Amino acid sequence: MTQIGSNEPVSQLIFEALQERFPDARCELEFHTPFELLISTILSAQCTDERVNLVTAALFAEANTPETILALGQIKLENKIRSLGLFHNKAKNILASCKVLVENFEGQVPADLELLRDLPGVGRKTANVVVSNAFGIPALAVDTHVFRVAHRLGLAKGKTPEKVEEELKTIFLQEKWSLVHHLFIFHGRRICGSRKPLCVECPLTGVCKQYKEYNPGLH
Ligand code: SF4
Fold first, then answer.
1. Pocket test for ligand 1, best of 18, 190, 192, 198 (most atoms within 8 A of CB)
2. Contact 210/193 with Cβ under 8 angstroms?
3. Which residue segment(s) compose the domain that 147 sits in?
4. Annotation says 125 is catalytic
5. Which of 113, 135, 157 is the last residue of a domain?
6. Is residue 4 part of a domain?
């Protein structure tokens, strides 16, 4: 077990402790191609990865390219993703993105953060998830879990995901960015939940800013 309290930088201790706790930390969306990951990530807004995986298993069996998704059309696509919520806008954005991919990128997903961000419905977080998980490009997507965990640990102060991304990127080596993203998400989903963090089960109490604030006598 990593010893919190040694002379290693706090960020390194946090990284090692989370890696030890979550050795299988990875992208929990199921995909086989960059395009499938792009669609899954768009669908995952305000929805669990588990539910997205159920829906995409059926969707991708029928249509898993920009051309075949476009062939479904708005109504049919909406019906296939209805259970995920926000289905009207998600379908609209997916179809608009597919159109751009077919017209400008020969149906391929570009391995480029900025080009991805130009696609309808694709924000910085989604673009970061796609470049890092589909193309192995170092990126650190900040979602609600990464944002919360970084703040509680005292690693970031930024009020926007973009600011927190910047802060975390200066703290962790580039080669660790993608894994930091997964580790923080695993930690946020399983231990450091938004309403009730399970601090008694957390390996980071010794370095956590919030824990120290709430338990001043223990440090
Ligand atoms: S000690 Fe508590 S608040 Fe801090 S990271 Fe762990 S679970 Fe979250």
1. 192
2. no
3. 10-25+140-214
4. yes
5. 135
6. no
